[in-house]
Amino acid sequence: MEKRKKVITALGLRKNLAVFNGIFFKNPVLVTGLVIAPAAVAANSLKAALALAIVAIIVTVPTVTIASVLSRYFKNIPEFLNPVIYVLISAFLLIPSFFLIRAIFNPSIINTIGIYGPLLAFNSMIFSRAKKYPLKKHPAKAALDSLSYSLGFGLSMCIVGSIREILGAGTIWGVVINPNVTFFGFLMPFGGCITVAFLAAFARQAVIIINRILRRVMIMYRWLKRKHNRKKEAVWKGNGAF
Amino acid sequence: MKFEKSNAPYIRYHESSRTVMSDIIIALLPLYIMAAYYYGVRAILLGAVGVLSSVVFDCICIKFAGKKINPRDLSAVVTGMILPLMMPATIPFITVVTAAFVAIAVAKHPFGGVGNNLFNPAATGYAFAALCWTNEMYTYPVPMTHIGIALTDTIKYTQSPAYTLSQSGVPNYDFLDMLLGNFPGPMGATHILVLMACMLFLIYRKTINWQTPVCFLVTAAVLAALFPRILTGNMLQSVMFELFSGIMIFTSVFILPEPVTSPKRIVAKSIYAAVGAAIAMIYRHFGGLAEGIVFGVLLLNALAPVVDRMGEKIIRTVRRAERGKA
Predict the structure, then answer these.
(1) Contacting residues for A58 by C-beta, under 8 A, at least 6 apart
(2) Closest-CA distance of chain A to residue B193, Å
(3) Neighbouring C-beta atoms of residue B55, cutoff 10 Å
(4) CB–CB of B110 and A183 under 8 A?
(5) Chain B residues within 8 A of A185 when measuring between CB atoms
(6) Residue B9: in which H helix or E strand, if any?
(7) Which helix (H) or strand (E) holds A6?
(8) Which of A69, A132, A142, B54 places its Cα 20 to 30 Å from the Cα of B210?
(9) Could you tell me the domains of chain B?
(10) B278: nearest Cα among B305, B258, B307
(11) What pLDDT tens digit does each residue of chain B (326 aa) get?
């Protein structure tokens, strides 16, 4: 992680790209492990995973934005009240999100995702984002940051959900693909845990490999720049001497 | 004079991982012969598929981890041989392959490979298969019927005595048949006499210690006698059927005393076995599946360090008491 930060700082991209870290480099499910429970238990089909992702986006983004606004413009609020306010806002936002997913999918989707939908109102993604980022940054940046985190959450949920649905039921989005060989265990929580564990291992390895490639690119870039500068210097000196 | 520099163990005991594993393989072979006698060639074919798939997955995992493949390591062969013996002879081949995959790639190598696994690989594979293919795992063919390799013929299926007991009925098999394995059940776990001989062989070779299986079976027998599931309430009958049906004795010989996942001290091992038997009997009384020993073993594998600490405490208190007397 340290090395990656150095590289991106050197490239001058860190300030701009750190906002999008949540999508892959600090994915809340696969890399940082912030919200594992819904992925391991409730996301046993693509529909349920997408429903949970929608709920997460609707709940997380406004909460973090409001948290940023509060910490920026209302500095009189004592610190111990912050979590209470966040939870109140996010729990209030749950109601429209549930109406939305009931309209998009069947009303029975509420039973499918079970307790893990309402539990998203106080997931650790909200708290880590609301505490870290928006205290110093502009609310718009905080919104973008939380959006990237919840998008990363939704992306990994969809991957986990589709893998579990294909392996467990032989279908995807309810369409039958392969009914012959199915592993029923993947629809159960222990199968979800195994899936998330393997995906997390692969994702972390991918992060390491990408960092390595970035570092090499950076070294190449520096070398080329130095060479270019030397040429310039040589030309200038040569001219002066002449 | 020439000195050779080398590190600590200067005097080596002849026992190694290889001798332990080859002993277990020798003990497993007669079970395959019995299974082939009762269920035909398919039993041996299932064993071959299990061994082949687990060895292949093992090699792939070792390569993936960037280690060297050790050709003297037989633990994958043992896992592959144990797995099909706990299943009925009519199990599809894909089940065996999946169980081997789960055993090797999920339970063994992510935790660090041979000697570092937290859970027993064979037990994990069996548990996964039992939850995924519940129907196929718990309907057994009648012994001495011809079973084709592709399962195209019609086969007589029956329920095992373990299922009959769970429906609080009395299984209709006599003692000699139970001893010889002439009753429906997993293809390697019904041959009680052969299993007992294997147990004696392994204890004589000091591959397993005698305390683990004995504690396990005695606790299970006592619990079966005190809380019989059959309606007639005959204690002896209850003990016989509870111990001989399912994979009770097989587990106590081949899965429970596994050196990696079980506790280290003898006292701790005895506690471990007794608690395992209690969990198995509780699962049989109240559980959903007909056979729950494996889940008890997995639960206890996670608790093995705790049991080890408990055994240590018991040993210390006993020593202190002795010192106080003297």
Answers:
(1) A93, A96, A97, A100
(2) 35
(3) 18
(4) no
(5) 128, 131-132
(6) none
(7) helix A2-11
(8) B54
(9) 17-315 (1.10.3430)
(10) B307
(11) 788 777 777 777 777 888 889 999 999 999 999 999 998 889 999 999 999 999 999 999 999 888 999 888 899 999 999 999 999 988 999 999 999 999 999 999 999 888 888 999 999 999 999 999 988 888 888 888 878 777 766 777 777 777 777 777 777 788 888 888 888 888 888 899 999 999 999 999 988 999 999 999 999 999 999 988 877 767 888 888 888 888 889 999 999 988 888 898 899 999 999 999 999 999 888 877 777 889 989 999 999 999 999 999 999 999 999 988 77
| Ramachandran category for residue A79: left, alpha or beta (phi over 0 → left; psi -120 to 50 → alpha) | alpha
SS3 content of chain B, % helix, strand, coil (to 5): 65, 0, 35
User: B110 touching A, CB under 8 A?
Assistant: yes
Per DSSP, the three-state class of B158 is strand
A97 token code pair: 């999100």
Contact A113, A45 (CB under 8 A): no
d(CA A52, CA A118): 10
pLDDT at A81 over 60: yes
**For the CA atoms of chain B, what is the radius of gyration?**
21
Classified as helix, coil or strand, A242 is coil
pLDDT of residue A16: 63
Chain B residues with CB under 8 Å of A183 CB are 98, 132
Rounded to the nearest angstrom, the minimum Cα separation between B100 and chain A is 14
Question: Which among B195, B258, B259, B192 is positioned nearest to B29, based on CA atoms?
Answer: B195
Count of C-beta atoms within a 10 Å radius of residue A109? 19
- As a whole number of Å, the CA-based R_g of chain A is 23
**Would you state the structure tokens that stand for residue A142, as one six-digit string?**
């905080």
Cα B136–B140–B146 angle (5° rounding)? 110
**Chain centre distance of CA B205:** 18
pTM: 0.86
Quick check: B93 contacting A, CB < 8 Å?
no
- State whether ipTM is beyond 0.95: no
